[in-house]
């Protein structure tokens, strides 16, 4: 009898072990930190596995699958949850015993909130608007007294989207975790990090941290915090439907992707607030996401021009000479930048007296040449000069210590305006200590002071845009006894850096500021002014400005990863995005700079920028780079009306400008990880060169009609599939336009100011049906506060072919109130000028047109027979007439002509 009992217990224990065992590809790390061993693991009531796996990232210590909370009470969409008894322990904190879960279905988006009401939540004012869609989710939840899990399915297909039955739910005050099985390994997003591929890899366990930090991106060490935080991803399901998920939290956080495929999310505060977007098309997912978080700002038209900057200009003369050198090389350029060199000892809202005294006159000169000026500013205000003095007088707030006994009195008492305050002092670029404006101040005084400083400074120096740097916020030498700036001979004194206690009562200062750290950049941008370009970003930052990918390096791998970065930030709702062309850190090479200028012409934010002490890398330095840049920039400027229309449409409706290829060709699996090429909108495919020493590039064209638009093979058909495309250094990189498209463009000048006065053209590409496109147009300068009252034009183009007739329809979808209406920007009056449409260029046109018989709105017209022609060998029709179409008259217009089918049935005749 005893033997039977022992055997029975052994069987039960064996079953228990079998139940608890989790395959190596589906685990949740119980001790996600170095130094885990069996003793520590078992003391946390977790499972230890001594087995050695080929994948060294497999957790040896992992949570049992029944880790989490029990459903204590279930009522409609609200659940009360209770921590399971004898469950595995939280590795860093003690789980809260009772929490709640709430599920809200808004018909278009689904929200799941888990935690304790009243805990910190980000203060970013999201619109949380929901678009109309026929797609919906369903939620499956177990019964009372069972382990709390939830499964989210797509109602139309039954496809699982989230499945938390993997276990691992933890909820402590300062350590929160949730995990889920994923329906796919095709996951895109989460950032800001350097990703070596567009699609996340699920071949092993990989952790990506998300904490805003002043740290240069390094593709060779990618698993690090960078400047911004975007806890959002897009998933592509097995049937090619797409969904999105936002995890709304501003605390330091991280995700781990596992081979399940599964996802583990961890954060150290706040709530678990999950919002699911149904799509089902990838572009619809982003539109729904941006409707929820806020659509992006429309940049000024000049901001689409080429821009040049460098850190380390010794004086204004060097700036003038460099810009003049670029212009003399006939390279289109719109914006001159000044880095911190222009300031008086690096203080915001100052101008260096010795070397920059004529800056205002130079700004006026730039403006006369149709150019613009952008200046850098940091959220670090030296505490012993006029700007800080005005801030104190206006009762502006600055980041403070929680208690007086935390204040570093040895530095606080050096300055009359900070003595007897709790203002936290730190070290950044200025010679003396700085304070950080607190833009979470519920009073308007801080933002009012900040904006007033910009207005006062603009009276001294008429700049056109601001470049926000160091806004994580960044500080130098914190907790260091010999910070790097002690060795800076230019500094007048070795000022003591910020000292943050790492242990004891004072170490708890980080609560609550660590909860707001990641969102500081958003609040800073919200208080900014015109045309901000922002380094640190958070969810919804795109509503106020663009972004560049930070202090990259002059390496080929940085060029390559920038292609992925600009696509990811379009997923995050920041379409005005770019990287420092030719690389910021280090010395660039002639070939790298040439290829980067060719690629950078297709960044929405196109700026060359490099570090202090490095050799100049302006494109005029090398004749071949100057030639390649000139050609690339001229192409960019030619198609700026299209790029601007994409940005305008996204500001109105949401979506992407730089678009991953799979967004347009979702059913083609070859596009699902095609990160090294991208699209402008739905029409234009760009295939960059990202390898050294090559004269061709491998690219993939999905199955549809494609035309090359490079000069040497303009209008020729490109074969779908993977091909090796010609890409010599003296030619534009491969660019293709899809059939069935109408693209607006303008002949380029040396600035966007001049280009905007040129007549419009449209490029029509023939596909399998009608061709369509759009054009938005405004004054290019005004700030959009509300599109409902904003003065702009929007036209829709449609080109239709029949057996004997071709017809172009131009339909005004929105018309400006008055063409002559004027606006005030920075005190200057600018008008809304709309050029005429003078050129219609059609490629893939296999008809013989009767150019002598053309009708505009049913009235016969004569075109310019010397410039207009039909090329049967290239299937190209060019129609030219000065003032052909006055598209600003507010009326629908029709241009038509007769034709007959050519004898050649092949597009290659």
Overview of this protein structure:
The protein is an alpha+beta fold. Among the domains are: 61 residues, no CATH class; 225 residues, glycosyl hydrolase (family 31) (Immunoglobulin-like). Helix content is 18%, strand content 27%. It contains 16 helices and 50 strands. The strands form ten sheets. Strands 47-46-50-42-41-40-38-39-45-49-48 form an eleven-stranded mixed sheet. The chain has a nine-stranded parallel sheet with strand order 27-26-25-24-21-20-19-29-28. β26, α11 and β27 form a beta-alpha-beta unit. α12 packs parallel to α13. It is globular and about 90 Å long. The termini are far apart.
The main sheet orders its strands as 47-46-50-42-41-40-38-39-45-49-48
Major sheet summary line: 11 strands, mixed
Look at the structure and give the mean pLDDT. 93
Could you say which overall geometry the principal axes of the C-alpha atoms support?
A: globular
CATH class of the domain at 69-293: Mainly Beta
- Summarize the amount of helix as a percent range: 10-25%
CATH level 4 superfamily of the domain at 69-293: glycosyl hydrolase (family 31)
By helix and strand content, what is the structural category?
alpha+beta
């Amino acid at each position: 009898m005893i033997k039977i009992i022992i055997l029975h217990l052994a069987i039960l224990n064996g079953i228990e072990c079998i139940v608890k065992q989790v395959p190596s590809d589906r685990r949740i790390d119980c001790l996600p930190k170095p130094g885990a061993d069996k003793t520590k693991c078992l003391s946390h009531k977790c499972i230890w596995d001594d087995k050695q796996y080929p994948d060294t990232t497999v957790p040896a210590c992992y949570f049992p699958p029944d880790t989490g909370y029990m459903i204590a009470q279930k009522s409609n969409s609200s659940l009360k949850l209770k921590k399971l008894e004898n469950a595995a322990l939280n590795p860093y904190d003690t789980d809260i015993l009772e929490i709640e879960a709430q599920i809200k279905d808004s018909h278009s988006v689904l929200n799941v909130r888990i935690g304790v009401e009243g805990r910190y939540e980000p203060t970013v004012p999201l619109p949380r608007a929901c678009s109309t869609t026929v797609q919906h989710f369903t939620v499956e939840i177990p019964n009372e007294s069972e382990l709390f899990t939830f499964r989210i399915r797509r109602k139309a297909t039954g496809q699982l989207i989230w499945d938390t039955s993997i276990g691992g739910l933890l909820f402590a005050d300062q350590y929160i975790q949730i995990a889920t099985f994923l329906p796919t390994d095709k996951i895109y997003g989460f950032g800001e990090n350097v990703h070596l591929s567009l699609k996340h890899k699920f071949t092993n366990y990989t952790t990506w941290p998300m904490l805003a930090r002043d740290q240069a991106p390094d593709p060779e060490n990618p698993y690090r915090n960078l400047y911004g935080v975007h806890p959002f991803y897009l998933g592509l399901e097995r049937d090619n439907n797409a969904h999105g998920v936002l995890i709304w939290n501003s605390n330091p956080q991280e995700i781990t992707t596992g081979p399940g495929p599964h996802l583990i999310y961890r954060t150290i505060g706040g709530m678990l607030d999950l919002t699911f977007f149904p799509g089902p098309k990838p572009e619809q997912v982003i539109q729904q996401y941006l409707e929820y978080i806020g659509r992006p700002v429309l940049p000024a038209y000049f901001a689409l021009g080429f821009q040049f900057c460098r850190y380390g200009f010794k004086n204004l003369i060097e700036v003038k000479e460099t810009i003049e050198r670029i212009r003399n090389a006939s390279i289109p350029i719109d914006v001159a930048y000044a880095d911190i060199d222009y300031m008086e000892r690096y203080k915001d809202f100052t101008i260096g007296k010795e070397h920059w005294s004529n800056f205002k006159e130079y700004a006026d000169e730039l403006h006369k040449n149709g150019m613009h000026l952008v200046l850098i500013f940091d959220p670090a205000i030296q505490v012993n000069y006029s700007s800080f003095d005005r801030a104190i007088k206006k009762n502006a707030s600055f980041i403070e210590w929680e208690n007086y006994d935390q204040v570093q009195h040895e530095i606080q008492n050096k300055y009359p305006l900070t003595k007897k305050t709790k203002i936290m002092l730190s070290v950044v670029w200025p010679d003396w200590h700085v304070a950080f404006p607190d833009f979470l101040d519920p009073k308007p005084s801080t933002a009012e002071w900040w904006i007033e400083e910009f207005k006062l400074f603009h009276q001294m120096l008429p700049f056109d845009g601001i470049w926000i740097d160091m806004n994580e916020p960044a500080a130098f030498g914190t907790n260091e006894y010999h910070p790097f700036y002690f060795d800076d001979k230019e500094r007048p004194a070795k000022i003591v850096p910020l000292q943050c206690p790492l242990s004891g009562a004072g170490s708890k200062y980080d609560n609550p500021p660590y909860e707001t750290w990641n969102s500081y950049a958003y609040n800073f941008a919200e208080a900014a002014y015109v045309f901000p370009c922002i380094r640190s970003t958070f969810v919804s930052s795109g509503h106020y400005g663009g972004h560049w990918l930070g202090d990259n390096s002059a390496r080929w791998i940085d060029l390559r990863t920038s292609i992925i970065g600009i696509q990811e930030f379009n997923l995050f709702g920041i379409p005005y995005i770019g990287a420092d062309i030719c690389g910021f850190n280090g010395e660039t090479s002639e070939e790298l700079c040439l290829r980067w200028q060719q690629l950078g012409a297709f960044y929405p934010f196109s700026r060359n920028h490099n570090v202090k002490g490095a050799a100049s890398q302006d494109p005029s330095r090398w004749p071949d780079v100057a030639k390649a840049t000139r050609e690339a920039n001229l192409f960019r400027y030619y198609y700026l009306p299209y790029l601007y229309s994409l940005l305008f449409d996204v500001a109105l409706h949401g979506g992407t400008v730089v678009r991953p290829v799979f967004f347009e060709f979702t059913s083609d699996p070859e596009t699902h990880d095609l990160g090294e090429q991208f699209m402008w909108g739905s029409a234009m495919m760009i295939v960059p060169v990202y390898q050294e020493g090559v004269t061709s590039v491998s690219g993939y064209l999905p199955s549809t009609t494609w035309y090359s638009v490079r000069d040497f093979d303009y209008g020729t058909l490109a074969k779908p599939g993977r091909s090796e495309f010609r890409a010599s250094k003296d030619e534009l990189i491969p660019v293709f336009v899809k059939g069935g498209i109408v693209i607006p463009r303008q002949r380029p000048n040396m600035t966007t100011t001049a280009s905007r006065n040129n007549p419009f053209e449209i490029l029509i590409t023939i596909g399998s049906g009608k061709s369509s496109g759009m054009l938005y147009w405004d004054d290019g300068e005004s700030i959009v506060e509300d599109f409902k009252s904003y003065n702009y034009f929007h036209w829709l183009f449609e080109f239709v072919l029949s057996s004997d007739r071709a017809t172009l329809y131009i339909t005004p979808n929105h018309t400006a109130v008055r063409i002559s209406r004027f606006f005030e920007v920075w005190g200057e009056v600018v008008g809304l000028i709309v050029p005429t449409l003078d050129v219609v260029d059609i490629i893939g046109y296999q008809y013989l047109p009767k150019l002598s018989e053309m009708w505009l709105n049913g009235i016969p017209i004569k075109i310019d027979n010397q410039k207009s022609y039909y090329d049967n060998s290239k299937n190209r029709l060019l129609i030219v007439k000065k003032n052909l179409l006055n598209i600003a008259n507010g009326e629908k217009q029709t241009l038509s002509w007769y034709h007959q089918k050519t004898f050649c049935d092949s597009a290659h005749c």
